[in-house]
Design goal:
single chain, mainly beta, Immunoglobulin-like, 5 domains, about 0% helix
Amino acid sequence: MKKTLLLLFFGAIFINISAQQTEPTYLANATYLGVSEPLRDLPKVVPTHNNDPQNFKYGNNEMRYPKKFNQNALPLHGEIKAQRDFGGINSYALEEDFIGTSITETQGFVPPDPTGAVGPNHYVHAVNSAFKIFDKSGTVLAGPSNLGTLFPGVNDGDPIVLYDQLADRWFISQFKTSTNGLLIAISTTPDPTGTYDTWEYPLDAFPDYPHYTIWHDAYYLTANKSGNHAYALDRQALIDGEPTPAIVGFTLPGITANTNTVFSPEPANLLGASYDANTPGYIVYLQDDGWSGAIAQDHLKIWEIDMDWVTTSNSTVSAVPLELNTVPFESTFAPFGTGDVAQPGTGQKIDMIGGVISYMVHYRKFAGHNSMIITFNADVDGNDTSGIRWFELRNDNSNPWSIYQEGTYAPADGHSRFMGSAAIDAQGNIGLGFNIASGNLPVGIRYTGRYFDDPLGTMTVAETTIVDGIGVQTFSNRFGDYSHLTMDPDDFTFWHTTEYFSSNDTWSTRIASFSLSGGFDNDLGVAEIVTPSDATLGGSETVEVRVKNYGLLDQSNFDIELRVDNVLVATETYVGTLTAGTSETFTFGQTVDLSTGGQTYSLKAKTILGSDQFTANDELEENVRNVFLNDIGVTEITAPVSGEGLGSEIVTVTIENFGTADQTGFDVNYIINGGTPVVETVGVNLAAGSSISYSFTTAANLSNVGGYGFTSSTLLGGDGDVSNDMVSTTVVNFDCTTETNGANFGIGPDAGTVTESIISIADNKVIADINVTVNLFHTFDGDLQIKLIGPDNTEVILSDENGGGGSNYTNTVFDDDASTAISSGSAPFTGSFIPDGDLNDYNGLSSLGDWKLVITDNYDFDGGELLDWTIQICADDALSISDYLVESGLVVIYKNNDKYLVKLPTASINEDLKLTVMNALGQMIYLKTLKNETGKGYEYMLDMSDASSGVYFVRIGNNRAGNMKRIIVD
């Protein structure tokens, strides 16, 4: 999905989902396990931590590769309409911010799967194998204790913690691997540190990734298990402590699942205490057209579940789910287990968990409508950079669910935002917590948000840091597998928990709370600069802003300042009353001069209220550019591209209209090596703000080996900014040699084992480009160093202990022109990667001789095999016949006893030349200066009787060129 400024009610398909229902497919009852000891009295964990990954415990999962099957799915090249800028409204300070738990309190469990819920006085937090209970200031009241003390002997994982506001009770769960069971605990009182009733529910398959929610008539549940299932637990029976509360399962009709993606529909979770008694339970799932050609368009599916706890077999689920078409999105990332997000200083990536709806889907009832908030990761650039796609759905008593707004939060700073969780407060403001990371930024935790009356589809609150990451994880891709944002019973405070790395290979969780309604009596601010925006502007532009009353008291007759480029130009009064919690537009009487073409102006508007209790959100700044009326330019030469065997090539360029007027009938040119311009007229319409691809009818002749300097420019009369008219590039027609060694060689498993494989190159080229492809099998790639050694012993490290615990290098191409560094890749490294070293070190050297691939296994235990490797050496100016000193070439005649008569016939060259002999490693073992004494050429009897057996190269020439032959000494 890909859109930030998204439109109201985009493409909803309205289906009467109450008309067709299906019955349950699974009915069972829980087994009562007993009442626990008070949690405050359970034994506490003794913190321990051993950084050896072999001592870590990895959570069970059945997550699969989120593979993209339909390569024509939209969007094709990332979300072009994602929100790429930050919100500008300053947020309130974090209300609470404290450490939850860490790997030291779980005996090394990875990943943590953090979860937590907030009640009137407590925050209950759990991770894989352990839980803690805090007061709302962060003081520990119980724990850290093993979940196995609440559920005796079971520490299997995937915990979920909920606070049931309707019953004032606490819910804690985890799965039980040995029986495919679900373990449930419900507090017997409102005190979470007290005793709990406990049960085990049976299921027919392992319930990985179980996600529960609170609803008025059930605890709803989905899990990543075989079959498309959702479940309802008898909530009231659990609260009452009955011995055999029921579980009812439903098959969700109409799903097209990606069999290589985590199955993760999400049930809706009730926020607040307001609901209609006849409201059904809701299950939501995403459908990505990249999963299958059977999915015509990206969309959401919604099922209704109507429960009958008197006769459970009468319960029903929608036979035909509601489908809501969305703006196109891409939900698939790298295969699970390989990692999606790079980290600084390590080749180990971490997983973001693509293709799933994030936990939780929150529902809130308002006076005139109901809202549901949904989030998931979306690839915003086609290169696994993640943003967070979010939705607010609405329905009411007369209308079914529709998309009220959707957006993708993805500021253009090169970082991925992922593992999001969002909720909506009682005023309709949305809070969004998430992780942030990249190859330049360790995993941290941040949040943003929006107010109910902000422009649709945008997160307007300034991105705020909860905690910056300190360390990285080097031993595993596992991260998450989820985060958890919940609402305080006060209906206005968001509480968020997720993980980060407090030091290398040490995860910790953080618990933080924030609000978007600060509770101040007096709090005004400018929420939006409505006009002007980027356009062709004049000398008397009107400025309109939206002013918001964030406080609890009405405000009247206050001043607003306006600045242009930090110069105060107006202070005017808002006349009237701005009601608490509302916003209104205000137009300045003073106009502003923004008439300089091409200039970007800073506009600042600020409320002035002497009693304002939070001034950080008073001012808002926007940059506005005066766009030229006429302004076009070539932004890219897309064809031809460098390669081997070029000839008559079509030249294609991208032309962009930067101005505000449409353009047609303008000229564009291309020039090669400063020669005669090729000028053609573009006859199609180039709309303002758009771009087109144009292919010249006159082809470029690139048949000769070598480099060609291209420039291309638009030639528009009256162009307002000629600096953006032209681009240039270099296209090289390479002469390439490709050789493969397919022999298999063992790798490791003992530390220090060195594996070598040689490819001999007989062609003598001046290297302009070199690429290496490797196929090998090896468990734990992080053990390996792979390097290339040229004939002259120049060494380049291709990969140095990258890949962590991943396995294999599969069709791995080392190419300096790739876009991704091998250190940022993940096993099995399929595709093209920039090596750790620089293959450009070989440029300008001779290709002739033996090239050696050297693999060193630096650690014990894991081993493997080199399957094959290939080297491609390209020249842009080959040492061809025409470059030789003598066209007839060098003659080497074997005499006897390893003696060779070396002759270079020529009557045109009389300078002294050098005869050199190199071994297969490119080392010179012999040097002799020769003279053309007869005037007919150069001749020398070469004695190789003392040389070891092998391949050698004999050359006669000077520093500029020469003639070479290969000989074999037995």
